[in-house]
Write a structure and sequence with these properties.
The complex is a heterodimer of chains A (264) and B (281). With 264 residues, chain A is α/β, with parallel strands linked by helices. Chain A contains 7 helices and 12 strands. In chain A, strands 6-7-8-3-9-10 form a 6-stranded mixed β-sheet, sandwiched between helices. In chain A, strands 2-1-4-5 form a 4-stranded antiparallel β-sheet, with no helix packed on it. In chain A, a hairpin with a 2-residue loop joins strand 11 and strand 12.
C-alpha cells in the first residue's frame, strides 16, 4: 500500500533554536498516530508544516504523492476546544457546511445536495438533533463533535487533530477520541492526533510520534517509551511519565501555540 | 423651547421633495450599514468603527478647507485609518490601543481644519453631527458608487469571511487567507464609514453600523435573519430619523440615534422575556 504522507528529513529551526530535525517517516492510509511532546516541542508546528502554513528549514513533506500545499480538502483539521463568542449568528448546521465549501467565495446558499451531506456528517457524529442549535449554546463536548463533523464532511484522507481533547472532561475525552478514531477508520483516513495524555486514545493508537528537543522517536507505544526512558536517564529531563499503565506528558497541559508564535 | 421645534409636521408635503436625496442616501446606508454591522459585531470591531469615523471626519474637514471634494476626503481618511488598524491591529488588544491613539488625533486635526475654514458654520458641524439637506446630486452619486462597491464585495467574500470569523485556524487549514480577508473587510468597513459620515456625521456612525446589528443578534442566531433584521432596523432608524428631523429642521442624528437606541432596548427586552419564558418552561 502506498503511504499517504511522506516526511523526508524534515527540519525546522528558528534562528539558532532547533525545533525538530531530520524527521523521517511515512504515514499509511488509515493509520492512527498519537503525537506527543512537551510544550514548545513543535507539535503544532509539525501540523502547520503538513498544512503548508509553516516552511521547513530543510527536507520536505509530501502528501498524496506531491509536495504539501495550502488548502487541501483532503486534509481535515480539528482544533482544540475554545469557547466561542455566544453572539455568532451560526447554527451547528451552518458551521459543518463551512467545512465543505467555506473556502469558496460567494454566499452560503444551501441546496439539497449540501443539505444531505451536512446531515450525513452530523449523523456520523451523532449530532443530527443539534443541527438547528446556535453554536454559542453548545457545551465543550458538543462543540468538539461539531468540529469532528466539520473535518469529516469533505471526506479527507488525513485528519490533523491539534489537542482536540484539551478543556474536555474525562468522559468527553473518551467520546471524542472514539468518534475521531472510528469515523477515520470508516472513511479510511489517517489521523495525526496531538495529545498530552495517551490514555483516552490508547485503544486506537497504531504508532506514537514523540518530539523532544530536536530529537524524535516514532514507533509502537512500547518502543517510544523505551526511547523516553533512555533519554531521561541520559539527559535528566523528565517530560513523559508512566504511572500504573497511564502515560502522560508533563508540562503540556497548556496549548503550545503561544510558544510557537513567539519563535515565528 | 417649544415642543413644536422638535416635532413639527406642517408643510410636510412641500418638505419631502427637498430631502428626496437624503432619503435615497438613507436607503443605501441602511443596506450597507446593516450588513457590515453583522461582521463588525462578530469580529469585535465596534471600537474600530469609532476610530475610523474620526479619521474620516479629519479627511473630510481637510478637503473642505482646501476646497476639494468632501466625500473623497472622507474616503481617504477612512481608508488610511482602516489600513493602519488592519495592518497593525491584528490582535484585538493591539487594535484597541491603536484606535484609542488615532481617535483623538483625527478629531483634533478635523477640528483644526474646521476652525480654519471660512465658510458657513452649518457646513462645518454637518460632518460631525450630520445634516438633512447635505445630500446633493453629486454626493448621492458618490454614495451610490461607494455602496455598490461595498455591497458587491461583501457578497463575494461573505462565506470565507464567515468561516474565518467562526474559526480562523480551521479556515486557514482550508486555504482561506484569513489575514488578507481581515484587511479587505476593514477596508470595506472604512468605505461604509465614509459613506455614513456624510449623512449621520462622524460622531454618530455607530448608531448605524453597530446598533442595528447588535439589536438583530439579540433576537436571532440565524445567518439569514440576523443580516435581514439588521438591515431592517437600520432602515427604520435612517428613514424614520430623516422624516422626523424634517419637521423641526434640526440635525437628523438625534432622531436616527434615538430610534436606533429604542430598537435596541426593545430587542433586549424581547430577548430578556424569552430567556425568562425558557427557564419557566
Amino acid at each position: 500500500m502506498n503511504s499517504i504522507l511522506q516526511v523526508n528529513n524534515a527540519s525546522l529551526q528558528f534562528d539558532e533554536r532547533v525545533i525538530w530535525q531530520n524527521l523521517d517517516f511515512e504515514v499509511q492510509p488509515g493509520e492512527f498516530i498519537a503525537l506527543i511532546g512537551a510544550n514548545g516541542s513543535g507539535k503544532s508546528m509539525f501540523l502547520k508544516s503538513v498544512l503548508a502554513q509553516q516552511k521547513l528549514t530543510a527536507g520536505s513533506i509530501n502528501f498524496l504523492g506531491s509536495k504539501v500545499r495550502r488548502g487541501s480538502t483532503d486534509i481535515g483539521y480539528i482544533p482544540q476546544h475554545r469557547s466561542l463568542d455566544a453572539q455568532l449568528p451560526l447554527t451547528v448546521f451552518d458551521a459543518v457546511r463551512l467545512g465543505l465549501d467555506g473556502h469558496r467565495f460567494g454566499l452560503p446558499l444551501t441546496g439539497a445536495k449540501t443539505k444531505a451531506l451536512v446531515t450525513e456528517a452530523l449523523i456520523q457524529v451523532e449530532a443530527d438533533q443539534l443541527a438547528l442549535k446556535p453554536l454559542g449554546e453548545l457545551s465543550g463536548g458538543e462543540m468538539q463533535r461539531v468540529r469532528v463533523a466539520q473535518a469529516l464532511i469533505s471526506k479527507p484522507k488525513l485528519i490533523l487533530a491539534d489537542e482536540p481533547l484539551s478543556a474536555l472532561d474525562l468522559n468527553h475525552q473518551q467520546v471524542v477520541s472514539e468518534l475521531i478514531a472510528n469515523q477515520a477508520k470508516k472513511q479510511g483516513a489517517a489521523v495525526i492526533f496531538v495529545t498530552h495524555d495517551l490514555n483516552p486514545v490508547s485503544d486506537y493508537v497504531d504508532r506514537v510520534l514523540y518530539l523532544a528537543k530536536g530529537r524524535y522517536s516514532i514507533g509502537t507505544t512500547e518502543e517510544v517509551m523505551r526511547f523516553v526512558l533512555f533519554k531521561q536517564k541520559t539527559a535528566y529531563e523528565i517530560d513523559v511519565v508512566r504511572n500504573q499503565g497511564r502515560i502522560v506528558v508533563l508540562g503540556a497541559h497548556d496549548h503550545d501555540h503561544h510558544d510557537d508564535e513567539e519563535w515565528a | 423651547m417649544d415642543f413644536s421645534d422638535v416635532f413639527n409636521f406642517s408643510d410636510y408635503d412641500r418638505l419631502i421633495p427637498l430631502v428626496a436625496n437624503s432619503l435615497w442616501a438613507g436607503v443605501l446606508l441602511a443596506l450597507v450599514g446593516g450588513l457590515i454591522g453583522v461582521f463588525v459585531m462578530n469580529r469585535e470591531l465596534s471600537f474600530a468603527v469609532h476610530g475610523i469615523s474620526e479619521l474620516s471626519f479629519a479627511g473630510a474637514a481637510i478637503f473642505l478647507l482646501f476646497g476639494l471634494d468632501v466625500v473623497f476626503g472622507s474616503v481617504v481618511g477612512s481608508l488610511t485609518a482602516a489600513l493602519i488598524i488592519a495592518v497593525l491591529g491584528d490582535r484585538s488588544k493591539d487594535r484597541n490601543s491603536i484606535v484609542a491613539v488615532l481617535m483623538p488625533f483625527g478629531l483634533g486635526i478635523g477640528i483644526l481644519a474646521l476652525a480654519l475654514y471660512p465658510g458657513r458654520a452649518a457646513n462645518k458641524f454637518g460632518l460631525l453631527t450630520g445634516q438633512i439637506v447635505a445630500v446633493d446630486d453629486p454626493k448621492l452619486a458618490s454614495l451610490a458608487v461607494i455602496s455598490a462597491i461595498v455591497l458587491v464585495s461583501m457578497v463575494v467574500i461573505w462565506r470565507p469571511l464567515l468561516f474565518a470569523t467562526l474559526d480562523s485556524e480551521v479556515a486557514a487549514a482550508r486555504g482561506v487567507n484569513t489575514r488578507v480577508l481581515g484587511i479587505v473587510f476593514v477596508m470595506l468597513l472604512g468605505l461604509a464609514v465614509a459613506a455614513a459620515v456624510q449623512v449621520v456625521g462622524a460622531l454618530l456612525v455607530l448608531a448605524l453600523l453597530v446598533t442595528p446589528a447588535a439589536s438583530a443578534l439579540r433576537l436571532s442566531k440565524s445567518q439569514l435573519w440576523v443580516p435581514v433584521l439588521s438591515v431592517a432596523f437600520a432602515f427604520v432608524a435612517m428613514i424614520g430619523g430623516i422624516l422626523l428631523a424634517l419637521g423641526g429642521g434640526l440635525p437628523i442624528s438625534p432622531y436616527v440615534t434615538t430610534i436606533s437606541f429604542l430598537i435596541y432596548l426593545i430587542a433586549r427586552g424581547i430577548s430578556f422575556i424569552r430567556g425568562k419564558l425558557e427557564v419557566s418552561k
